[in-house]
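Researcher: We're teaching a course module on how sequence relates to structure. For the next exercise, students receive a sequence and then see the predicted structure as tokens, so they can try to spot secondary structure elements on their own. Here is the exercise chain.
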Amino acid sequence: MYSIMARQRKLHSFLLAVVRSIFQDMISMDSVIVKIMTFAQKLVSADRASLFLVDSRTKELYARIFDVSGDNDEVHEVAKEISRFPLGTGIAGHVAQTGESLNIPDAYEDDRFNRAVDQQTGYTTKSLLCMPIFIRGSIIGVMQMVNKTTGTFNKADEEAFATFATYCGLALHHAKLYDKIRRSEQKYKVALEVLSYHATCTEEEVRRIEASTALPHPAQQLQTFSYSPYSIGGDEQVVATIFMFKDLFKQELFDEDSLVRFTLTVRKNYRRVPYHNWSHGFCVANAAYAILKHSTGAFKPLEELALFVSCLCHDLDHRGKTNQFLINSASPLASMYSTSTLEHHHFNQTVQILQQSGHNILKNLSSEDYKQVLSYIKHCILATDLALYFPNKSKLKHHVDEGTFDPGKPEHRSLLQAITMTACDLCASTKPWEQQRKTVQVIFEEFYEQGDLEKAEGRQPIPMMDRTKAHELPASQVGFLKGICIPCYDLLSKILPGAEDMKKGCLSNLALWEELASNEQQRLEDRGETEAQ
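Model: And here is the predicted structure for the students to work with:
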């Protein structure tokens, strides 16, 4: 009785150690399996132990671990060479095929026994204890104990062995999972390396920009709120961006090569969608540049840096679709971020570019300043989500109306940064009429493309994204300017008087959109009367 209890305590202690090893020694799962096999072999007093796995593709068994206690390396290697055989062949093959456990007292008296290994190794198999290993109802392998040192395997051996087969299956399952995860990680690294190569500027592009330092027009034009960013294109926008960087910030802050690479790679990581592309990023960055030039001292140096970088990068890798579309279509991005899906992605893309070799334009900052700028950039990019604009505007407006706005308070400055980002993002609404109208046409083409996709998927798009309702565009713009843009610029100009021209431009465009909306309404009424006659 005492020996049985001692054996049980020893067994329980070992099984606890096995479980601990399974969860802690993922890298060396083979060693965990060997521990299990060795202990099982000693517990049932077997001379040798083997583990075979099922190859479901070839319908074969192959040795994962062969002859755990074998002393002769030569025997082990010979056995390995012949230890792949079809399911149904030999005792182990029969167990793998049928799922039944076998306790064979005399192997040579059993017709199912495969004598090939004994014949080639010179080893004599007498008794066998063989059990299947199940995972989720499927046989994944077979454990085999060979030659009990005293007599033959008994019922107690079978029960103990069954327990070890279960734990061995658990270890194998974890080993497979770990191997799958490890291979997935390696695939991910390779894919990331390939994507990084194709999403990073080339040396040829760098040399071309470094040789083209002259602006395509007088620098003063970049400071005007009426400036048309779309009047230049290609490398000219990159050159202008680098000029604005250098003009706003200390020359020694940036490494020239890093600045060129960063700007070029940012351009490359904007997708070729109708509106949310590189030209839009350049346009928004230019708006930030103009605001900063007309509002000297309104922002601290690190805030200015974060604002400009954020505006340039705020729509990186935009897919030309809204956050709601990504959620409705079960996009992987939507599963990663519960709120502000695209905005979180834009920030992460920004950080990824900064982490590319030779691209970190912030590397000359102190560690503390670096962290602060990244924090500002995240805040600023997330603020471009219009869902956050309304609460931000409400809070800031309350402070301005009550006369409690205090630029010395970090939370007030944070609200100002957020509203400034919205003002820059929507700057197309402040541009001269022809620029504004062309931009709106491009924006709505992107909207209509999303609407077309939604219809193809059996969903009804909102009117703004339904190209069959294109006649409602002027009225839609009137609502957009009145509800979002003008309140934004009105609030911003009260804090930053230098941004007053943005409000004026927006009001001017509103009057023209109202006229178009009125004309469209009259046209519809006239058509209705004609059809009624």
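Model: If you want an answer key for the exercise: Confidence is low (pLDDT under 50) at residues 70-81. The two ends are 107 Å apart (CA to CA).
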